[in-house]
Amino acid sequence: MEDITGLLVRTLFTYFFILLLLRLMGKRELGKMSVFDVVISIMLAEMAVLSIEDTEKPLMHFYLPMLLVCGLEIAMSFLSLKSKKVRDVVDGSADMIIENGQIREEAMRRNRLNMDDLMVHLRQKNVKNIADVEFALLEPTGQLSVFVKHDQSFLTKGDLGIKPSQPASPVTYKGLPIPLILDGKVRTEALRKVGQNELWLKREIRKYGIKDIKDVSFCSIDDQGIMYLDKKDTPQK
Q: Is the dihedral of CA 202, 212, 109, 105 positive or negative?
């Protein structure tokens, strides 16, 4: 019975102690989880579990390291406020994924982000067509900040009764924009869905001055037949 009582007391003390540490570290830790924040959280969680399980050692043997970790986090937060270099090392910096409507493949590779991941991020921001995006930044927290083109925000061309440009060719597909080319590879199922074939696709990309499908990073078509195409970045010498 005494063992159970001691375990409950240790659990109760550890709970309130962790709660106190989180409050000392500030609300930032709850609303924004950078890589450094994740490491701190894992360390605190591990030490909290050990303090409950290892009843042979006094609680201070666990609480003192937890206080040290808390102090380190607070110190790094103050340093981050004073120095951008420290902030970039600890929290990381935002990376431009789409710039002026063009996908930056090098930034995608650097962040180990593929086209499917990018489309998921955009759909989570209620953006159904990548052609509507002017800028997209991958934040240090892993979230994608998306800025749509001016004619797609608030008052659109459709609201003004302005007809869109003529479609590249008629399609039978109705719904969300569908990717036809991902990372230089043709999606045969997608072509069948829009009622076209690879020969038609090659003719369409030639209108953009592209001879080889492998030179295309991303290509999609919407339900009006309007195509969005992004060429692969030219390797820097």
A: negative
Q: According to the 3-state scheme, what is the secondary structure of 87-101?
A: HHHHHCCCEEEEECC
pLDDT at site 155:
46
d(Cα 82, Cα 96) in Å, to the nearest integer?
A: 24
What pLDDT score does 234 carry? 67
Whole-number pLDDT of residue 17: 84
Distance of CA 72 to the CA centre of its chain: 28
Query: Within its chain, how far is the Cα of 129 from the centroid?
Result: 17
Ranges of the chain with pLDDT below 50 = 27, 29-31, 154-157, 164-167, 170, 172-173
Whether 98 and 113 have beta carbons less than 8 Å apart is answered as no
* Per-residue model confidence as pLDDT tens digits over 10-47: 888 888 888 787 777 764 544 456 667 777 888 888 88
Encoding tokens for residue 85? Answer: 């270099």
End-to-end CA distance of the chain: 73
Task: Give the integer Cα–Cα distance in Å for 69 and 188.
Answer: 53
